[in-house]
Specification:
Largest sheet: 4 strands, mixed
Radius of gyration: 17 Å
Pfam families: Fer4_11
Shape: globular
Strand content: 15-25%
Keywords: 4Fe-4S, Iron, Iron-sulfur, Metal-binding
CATH architecture: 2-Layer Sandwich
Helix content: 10-25%
CATH topology: Alpha-Beta Plaits
GO molecular function: 4 iron, 4 sulfur cluster binding; metal ion binding
Low-confidence stretches: none
Structural class: alpha+beta
Number of helices: 5
Protein name: Thiosulfate reductase electron transport protein phsB
Distance between the termini: 29 Å
Length: about 190
C-alpha cells in the first residue's frame, strides 16, 4: 500500500487553470463550477488598474488536503466519508445522506454538493479513475504546463515527492489545526 500526497510548487503557477479543466474532464464535473474538486486562488496584485504589478500576484492551487486526521471523516454520521487503503479520503455516494456536516467541518472549504449525484463530493486524487487504471499520477499533475504539482507515495523515500519534501522547505495550510494535511506547498 502507498500513502499518497501532493507537493505544490505554487510559485510556478501561472493561473492558466489547465489543472481545473483536466480535473473536471476526468471526473465529469461541469466546466465553470467554482471550487469543485480543485481550484486556483489568488491574492490581489499591487497597484491600481491599469498599472498593476503582476510580479506581486501569487496564485495558490488548492483542493482537498487528504488529511490524515480529517475532520470531515470524523463528523460523517453514515461513514460515507472514509479512508481507502492508500490513505486517500473518499466518499461513498451510496452512504451519503447530504447532511453537509462534512462541508461544515472541513477547514479547507474543499467539499461541495454534486448536483448530479446529490452527494457531498471532493477531490479523490484520481483514485477511482487514473490510479484505478494503473496510471501513476493525477489529471491535474499530468496537464500542468509549469509542473506545479508532484503526486506520489509519501512512504517511498525514492519517490519524486519524497525527494522534493526532503530537499525543499515546505508548509501545509492550517497545520496548526492538527489535521495532518498531505498537500505540501514548496517554498
Amino acid at each position: 500500500m502507498a500513502r499518497y500526497g501532493m507537493a505544490l510548487d505554487y510559485k510556478n503557477c501561472i493561473n492558466c487553470r489547465a489543472c481545473e479543466v483536466a480535473c473536471k474532464e476526468e471526473n465529469g464535473v461541469e466546466l465553470g463550477a467554482e471550487k469543485h474538486r480543485i481550484w486556483v486562488g489568488s491574492n490581489n496584485p499591487d497597484g491600481e488598474w491599469p498599472n498593476l504589478s503582476l510580479s506581486s500576484a501569487v496564485f495558490l492551487p488548492s483542493q482537498c488536503q487528504h488529511c490524515e486526521e480529517a475532520p470531515c471523516q470524523e463528523v460523517c454520521p453514515t461513514n460515507a466519508t472514509y479512508y481507502n487503503d492508500d490513505g486517500i479520503v473518499l466518499v461513498d455516494s451510496d452512504k451519503c445522506i447530504l447532511c453537509t456536516y462534512c462541508m461544515n467541518a472541513c477547514p479547507y472549504d474543499a467539499r461541495y454538493v454534486d448536483e448530479r449525484t446529490m452527494t457531498v463530493d471532493k477531490c479523490t486524487f484520481c483514485s477511482d479513475t487514473r490510479l484505478a487504471r494503473g496510471e501513476t499520477t493525477t489529471a491535474c499533475q499530468a496537464t500542468c504546463p509549469t509542473k506545479v504539482r508532484t503526486f506520489g507515495d509519501l512512504d517511498d523515500p525514492n519517490s519524486e515527492i519524497s525527494q522534493l519534501l526532503e530537499n525543499r522547505e515546505h508548509f501545509s495550510l492550517k497545520a496548526h489545526l492538527g489535521t495532518k494535511p498531505k498537500l505540501f506547498y514548496l517554498r
